[in-house]
């Protein structure tokens, strides 16, 4: 045969599972988008169409929903660990399972000031509004021995309206950009960080707390860095996370530079003292880098944040 | 001529203007997407291509940015009023101006607990994260005499995890739906409300406060209504706004019923006690209605919420 | 009651129905996205939550799929007429039905030059690639007596790389645009046209042929008009359709002016002789107008093309 | 320093360049979306914010537009090769350049049957409609010595309405799927193939012809394969390309299984003889695999098709 099969994987993508947990009248919600990708002894299905080793993608979907009942959803990471372990340990041909999860967060709707006129304030413990800010992500990979957990977030749009400069750069024949000593810095943060937890023998991180802390450090580093370049800000964000969270060894960012151009108002006899900006769509600068704890090997793929 | 020109309008759509206001070290941000549509004596440009009556769309764009400097952006509504008045009063051929604005809201990034290690907590008054929840909207229409202000919001996703039923409906040959006595009710609220302010002689509403209050009443009515149908919930939301806000005479909603189907876990020997749901994409129920103060004439177009 | 109910409608939106018809080994495909909106005696469901007059949206979904079997899908318009008639005539409380349909078109995949090496060229009569160009649309409204059929298309992107000018316009304080004597004209055509067929007593148009012809005339008028303004081009497109198709009385366009800015290459010592353009995203001019057969009343809503 | 910098890259993404070439009255169009990513000696800009080695992303944008003039756009691949070579050879700190390009294709608008009534049929050689089918893609990577060219396409939606089965698969506790002996097979093809051209000393492929042929073989293999699984179809598509095109050594596909579920019409007393389908959105099966010429090393990243 002149052609052969290379890396392959399959599964059901984007299973939208919502889990409600009732604690008396107080409800809790977990809202996930779960994608399953399995690989292993799958030559036959590609070469001949024999499905003898194929657990149907429909079954992987059913498993997601059944596990939401059997195990609950403590965190996206823990849920993905249950799923990945199941597929690898229960099906001999499956050697590796990769679970990707996106999580939507919700907040409770505040009660009415005088809700007694209505149904009673204790009733609104089942009412939620979607926060709509960042999307939380995680990717769990298991090969039967080791775990790799890469969590993160995307679409977290942040802006500094000052304390950002850009000057001292290379000028070549095609350079027309003017140096800037006070500009807006705005980006949609996409970040993916790798936990150093890899073995069932080790103590698991507190996934929920770790996420909240990583996000907090990213936001604060963005806010508190006086920026000479978006690369510098990126490194500060990554460094702050690694230095503050011992359970995280590596973090990668993909940061579009959402350009806000100062509008030239002189033709109208007006002075624009860093007040009026045009928020551009395309093109945009795109700054991507990994920050690592010294001594560790990088594992997060360069295009990881595209997931 | 066998064909004639009907209603027409033109202008620059989606001008992305960001206005920063500095109050000492504390910055404030207004982030708008402004669309201008002008109409008037525009027969010639359609029939012959003569642009003698045409203020270029590029000029309407420039005006948006210049006005952000000249007038500031107190609120989306006030900004739109400045623009609409300008176009109608400064250009004889222009008889009606319609300004549509979408507003993105931002929140401040919280300071570091120990930010003195960094740059100083007073510096973070210029750092923002986009809230990402609903999009605020407004439409200002002016014909030189009367104002019509229709404000609203869209993409505000809300969910009640209980206190929703659906039964007692018509059954025909094509009906298979089972009655539900405890279901999830979830929707993306799109609302448009009309202010009864129409004349420069009358006192203007407080646009910012009015928006916050209308949103609050919508959320609370959603949370506090024990729902027998999404139509009933819609009416309660609308009624609450009209009854609570004397400056609003009419409100229209477009509410998708974001179906959350209880997953059948019986094939796996599991019981699903309102715990595990599949969040479906399409199709979805779509419930739309106007609620009016008794005695007023409706003006909000049926497809208004598509703006 | 201080508030009352205004216009309201409900139904199942975006039912994605695909109908395969087998003519021997040759298959035919119709791929529709069908939205149902019903209105009538629906006060109770809004005021009290009583569903006694409510045919469930789930039933309207079932009806769409059942009708694809019972009636087939001859055309989107004919299919919508079957549905609208059914809802209005079979359910006493329903007074008006509005069916909106989007249609995706497919083309056959060409056979292999030497397909005998494979399975046989006669097999490929069941293989299709989605064309991906414009989306065909229609809206059928029926009140038990009269029909209103508004068909159209959207997302048909067209470009003239010359034969477009823009000059002689109004200049005010905010005008900086330079006159253009040879520019690119590019737009995403959204069009909606109204048929003058309104009664079951009259002979129905050939919906498929009418669509093809209307699209052809729009494209040809775009290509063949030497344009002094996008408004002029719009009017030529509309006029051509009305003059060529007696079954169409009114047409409305919503045409973004997809700006292609000539890039200034002088800083690099290069001359840009209408060769290199930057295709901008936002803002964009937006030109909208209705063209009517002389003497008819306009019925297409101003925001019709938002559907 | 406890943290260090890992892989990093930067540049201007999504430069929308349109190049018109005039051959007498006949115009030709190339419509690209070009993203530049550069890497090299960039430690300082991350650690200290020094931009001394940084060619601004704005300059990379200017270079894209200037090169469209200086070199023209013969093909996306050739254009990317010009750009990558320039960045690596003209800036000492830049060691690797990666250029990603998306190409939109256009077709000419057919002339009017009787266009002499208008402007003359020879005029329409400058009028185009965007085809709207697949997006053509390429990625050019250059390190100063070797080239890696990975081209492909995405969003090419194809359907077989028969000749697809799925049975004989693993059944576990969570399996409920019924075996299918005649189902619809529909997918949105995303493919990325790697050329074995790596050196300036070797003869370059004909990029335009190679693309057309690769697409043709993918389509024909899809149409002509009697499918027992989407994996089998994938392998046939890949194998056909590798076997037919000696310039291509490796190809990777990411194929969603766009489920078309046969609608159960029995509750309505109707029989559904493979006629009426519901086209589902989420979840969907996702089948991904690489097909290689025997003996070559795989280089296309697993997530390559996310570009």
TrEMBL record, chains A, B, C, D:
Keywords: Oxidoreductase, Purine metabolism. Transmembrane segments: none annotated. Pfam families: Uricase. InterPro entries: Uricase (IPR002042). Pathway: Purine metabolism; urate degradation; (S)-allantoin from urate: step 1/3. It catalyses: urate + O2 + H2O = 5-hydroxyisourate + H2O2. Coiled coil: none annotated. Its EC number is 1.7.3.3. Catalyzes the oxidation of uric acid to 5-hydroxyisourate, which is further processed to form (S)-allantoin. Belongs to the uricase family. This is Uricase.
């Amino acid at each position: 045969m002149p052609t052969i099969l290379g890396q392959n994987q399959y599964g059901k993508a984007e299973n939208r599972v919502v889990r409600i947990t009732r604690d008396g009248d107080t409800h809790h919600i977990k809202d996930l988008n779960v994608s399953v990708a399995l690989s292993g002894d799958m030559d036959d299905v590609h070469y001949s169409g024999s499905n003898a080793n194929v657990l149907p993608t429909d079954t992987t979907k059913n498993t997601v929903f059944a596990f939401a009942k059997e195990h609950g959803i403590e965190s996206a990471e823990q849920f993905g660990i249950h799923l990945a372990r199941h597929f690898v340990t229960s099906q001999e041909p499956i050697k590796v399972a990769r679970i990707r999860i996106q999580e939507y967060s919700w907040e409770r709707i505040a009660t009415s000031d005088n809700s007694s006129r209505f149904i009673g304030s204790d009733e609104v413990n089942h009412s939620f509004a979607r926060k709509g800010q960042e999307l939380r992500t995680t990717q769990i990979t298991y090969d039967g021995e080791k775990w790799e957990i890469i969590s993160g977030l995307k679409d977290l749009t942040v802006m500094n309206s000052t304390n950002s400069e850009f000057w001292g750069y290379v000028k070549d024949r095609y350079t027309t950009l003017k140096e800037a000593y006070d500009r807006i810095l705005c980006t949609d943060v996409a970040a993916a960080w790798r936990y150093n937890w890899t073995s069932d023998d080790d103590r698991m991180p507190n996934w929920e707390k770790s996420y909240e802390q990583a996000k907090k450090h990213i936001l604060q580093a963005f806010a508190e860095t006086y920026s000479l370049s978006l690369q510098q800000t990126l490194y500060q964000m990554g460094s702050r996370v690694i230095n503050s969270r011992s359970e995280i060894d590596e973090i990668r960012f993909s940061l579009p530079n959402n350009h806000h151009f100062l509008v030239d108002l002189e033709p109208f006899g007006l002075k624009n003292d860093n007040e009026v900006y045009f928020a551009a769509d395309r093109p945009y600068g795109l700054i991507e880098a990994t920050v690592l704890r010294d001594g560790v090997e990088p594992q997060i793929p360069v295009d990881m944040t595209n997931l």
